[in-house]
Each structure stands twice: as C-alpha cells, then as structure tokens.
Write a structure and sequence with these properties.
The protein is elongated. It folds into 2 domains: 81 residues; 36 residues. The protein is mainly alpha-helical. It has 5 helices and 2 strands, in the order ββααααα. β1 and β2 form a beta hairpin. α1 crosses α2. The longest helix has 32 residues. The termini are far apart. Keywords: Chromatin regulator, Nucleus, Transcription, Transcription regulation. Belongs to the EAF7 family. InterPro entries: Eaf7/MRGBP (IPR012423). Pfam families: Eaf7 (PF07904). It is found in: Nucleus.
Length: 144
C-alpha cells in the first residue's frame, strides 16, 4: 500500500520508512488508534491492518505492520493480552454425538451393515488362504 504525502500541489509516493516512536506525536497517534482498535484476539491481524492504515493516514508515511507489532511487543506482553481476550463463541472441542432417540434405529442398522461387511471380508480372506498353498522359497523353480 503506497501512501502519498500531501504537500502544496505535489503528491509523492513514499517507501516504507521506520516510524520514530520516540516522538510524542507518533506515540499519541498510535495510542488514539489503539483506543478503538485492539490487535488481540481472533481478529488481531485484521485489526492490525486497520491500525496500519489509520496510522499511515495520520502520519502521512508508509507504515509497516512489522514495525507496529515490534513496538507494541516492546510496550506490552501481547501473548498475555491475547490469552485474556474473551472469545464471543465457545471454542471447546467436544465429540459430536447423535441423539439416540432420533437416530438410534439408523445407527443400529448402519452398525449391523458394517459388521456384516467385516465378516464377509474375513470369510473371503479365509477362502483365499485355503485355495493358495503355501510354498517355500526352496520349492520355487525357475522355468526358462
């Protein structure tokens, strides 16, 4: 994303320049943006894109997300903040179980089908073993 610096009648495309966080104005712009947009939780990368865009508009400079991430990491423990962020929906893994009241008959018939297929497969394997006599490598003769 190229941000153009506005001067009197001129517009120049700027390359990404490291933001000087030692100035109060730059720090203040970042903190004002952080009041409405927090780069934590499940949407942290989307939020960071918004932060970078707003910061670039306020500073009239190209800002990189890596530079902002590095600066925020120097100020805050981002991993801890991420852990404390609540998720708006339950995120626990649990096994899915069909209701036996509604699907009990269907599950039972499916189980019987699977079991019958297994027994048929075992019977076929036993028949194959009976038909093919075992031969030892010594008994094999090469025919030319």
């Amino acid at each position: 994303m190229a941000v153009k610096e506005k001067t009197e009648g001129n517009e120049e495309t700027l390359e990404a320049v490291e933001v000087e966080w030692s100035t109060v104005d730059n720090e203040l712009h970042l903190l004002q943006i952080l009041c409405g947009t927090r780069p934590i939780g499940i949407s942290k990368y989307f939020q960071m894109a918004c932060i970078v865009e707003k910061l670039a508009m306020n500073l009239n400079k190209e800002v990189t997300s890596k530079g902002v991430w590095d600066h925020l990491a120097s100020l805050y423990d981002l991993k801890k903040l991420d852990e404390h962020e609540t998720i708006p929906f339950p995120n626990e893994e649990m096994d899915f179980v069909l209701s036996t009241e509604e699907y009990g008959e269907l599950m039972e018939s499916k189980f019987k089908d699977v079991e019958s297929k297994k027994t048929i497969k075992k019977e076929k394997e036993e028949i194959k073993k009976e038909k093919v006599p075992e031969t030892h490598p010594n008994q094999l003769k090469r025919k030319l």
